[in-house]
Amino acid sequence: MSSALRTRLLAVLAAVATVVAGLTVRALTDGWFGKYAGDALYTVLVYALIVLVWPRVSPVRAAAGALAFSWAIEFAQLTSIPAALSEVSVAARLVLGSTFGAADLVAYTVGAVLTAAAHTLVRRIRSTERSHGQ
What is the DSSP string of 22-33? Predict the structure, then answer.
């Protein structure tokens, strides 16, 4: 199996695991932890989708892209467009949200940084295994 295909497969698995984790966190927790964990996981999902499309992307670039997307959606909430779309579509509400929250920007950043760190670690482990012929 090629490296790109293996990376894409892992990205799909990461995306599915992220959605399951997000739904689980929302179902089992209340308050700030559930909200901000969900925000961080939103960025993790975007990160996984970036890696799915561009399997050779560096962790820093994937994190920057995921963070830029997440922040753009959050800042769009300063307009009335996401709220209006969220009123008519559950999908829009899940993707766009409806109200701006500055603390959400911090949660997105945490998600991007932690995911880039994990991605970097996985790359190093795989590189070490390849160099040792495993």
Answer: HHHHHHH--HHH
